[in-house]
Design goal:
about 130 residues, four-stranded antiparallel sheet, Structural Genomics Hypothetical 15.5 Kd Protein In mrcA-pckA Intergenic Region, Chain A
Length: about 130
């Protein structure tokens, strides 16, 4: 269910397209400068319409989107994905960054649960070199 002719507030669009779990989080991201609409920093009430470009930073990962439709509700993920197209370079950069973060996590020392005082100091000593 999409409305291809109308416009929608950017915070609602981000919520309907499942980039954020709540509209208040979407509004906070817009207000915090993590979202750009057509290259400019928008207000939460800025209108999104088909053809607009959105640059979004969420969880330190960048998304570059082109709006193709305006959803009328927060529906299933497949319905939400039909409302935007993502730049291929954005997808490749995000996959590379995710792989690098995963590799960093694998190189960290492993403990058998929450480290106690002695183990924590040992981990800090190893990380300093």
């Amino acid at each position: 269910m999409t409305d291809r002719s109308g416009a929608l507030r950017i915070d609602r669009w981000l919520y309907f397209c499942r980039f954020f779990k709540s509209r208040s989080r979407a509004s906070a991201a817009v207000g915090g400068g993590h979202v750009r609409l057509n290259g400019e920093r928008p207000a939460s009430g800025a209108r999104v319409k088909p053809g607009d470009t959105i640059e979004l930073v969420r969880d330190r990962l960048e998304y570059r989107l082109t709006v193709t439709a305006v959803p009328t509700r927060r529906g299933p993920a497949a319905e939400a994905r039909a409302c935007y197209e993502e730049d291929e370079a954005s997808v490749a950069e995000r996959k590379a960054k995710t792989a690098a973060l995963r590799q960093d996590r694998l190189s960290m020392p492993v403990t058998g649960g929450r480290p106690d005082k002695h183990t924590r100091r040992e981990l800090i000593r190893r990380n300093r070199g």
